[in-house]
Design goal:
Helix content: 40-55%
Number of helices: 9
Number of strands: 11
Shape: globular
């Protein structure tokens, strides 16, 4: 199966609705899709001590939130690295001149290096017209955007052309949450009702114990659900106005997946 155009996809749904499961299934069924995770990009850049990674690490260590600007910069850099953005102004982060002497950096420590970074305020501002339509430039974006403001900023880099809203009744999600177990080191998630571990209570890969997250309690989840509704309503409205929003309803992941496949094929194959 060959795509006829680039698919740029996001999945939107309440915590526990099964976005991760649907993402994995889409990626497996349509290998032309690549996974791009804002969280993975953050961890990769921090691990490899890139200028962006150093900047992000400093923010995280001081308890700050990673700004939309930095997340957008990470995504832009990744898309550019893959050759999926072209033309426009290059998206770079530079060193301030005060940090560079005749022999290079005056202080080579990571903190000094991070504090010397300057963000080019115009970087990535004129890339939307040059987003590649090559089918090879197809991706499923995870973790961003989560708000309408972020979505509008993302539009200035690369426009999403399919936003999927996954809808499952709250009582079904609550039952699912109470049956969820996690392998914390890897993030692998199991559910005793439909994706049970081979050995109850233990991870399939490592054999290490599984745990239930503290935020999987009913009270905590309801608070998270209300917050999701507050932020997702304007986000979904944004994509509805752009004509790229599609809603899918189902009681289970197995019910939703075939609908996703069919609609993806209709739009992109």
């Amino acid at each position: 199966m060959r795509l006829r155009q680039a698919a740029r996809v996001i999945l939107v749904g309440a915590p526990g609705v099964g976005k991760g499961t649907q993402s994995e299934r889409l990626l497996k069924r349509f290998p032309q899709l690549s996974a791009i995770s804002s969280g993975d990009l953050l961890r990769h850049n921090v691990k490899n001590r890139t200028p962006l990674g150093i900047k992000v690490e400093r923010t995280m260590k001081t308890g700050g939130l990673v700004s939309d600007d930095l997340i957008l910069r990470l995504i832009t850099n990744e898309l550019g690295r893959r050759g999926w953005l072209f033309g426009g102004r290059p998206n770079v982060m530079t060193l301030s001149s005060s940090a560079i002497g005749d022999g290079g950096l005056l202080d080579g420590s990571p903190d000094a290096f991070g504090s010397a970074l300057e963000v080019d305020p115009l970087a990535g501002a004129s890339l939307s017209q040059q987003a590649s339509e090559d089918p090879a430039a197809s991706f499923l974006l995870d973790g961003f955007p989560r708000t309408a403001t972020q979505a509008k900023r993302l539009d200035s880099i690369v426009p999403i052309n399919w936003a999927v809203s996954i809808q499952t009744p709250l009582d079904v999600i609550m039952q699912r949450i109470s049956s969820r177990w996690v392998h914390e080191p890897s993030g692998r998630v199991y559910n005793t009702t439909f994706n049970a571990p081979k050995v109850p209570g233990f991870d399939d890969i490592t054999g290490e114990p599984l745990v239930q997250r503290a935020d999987d309690s009913e009270e905590v989840y309801r608070t998270r659900f209300r917050k999701f509704q507050e932020t997702s309503e304007p986000l979904l409205e944004h994509y509805a106005k752009k004509g790229v929003l599609w809603e899918v309803n189902g009681m289970s992941s197995d019910e939703i997946s075939p609908k996703l496949y069919q609609e993806f094929e209709r739009r992109f194959l």
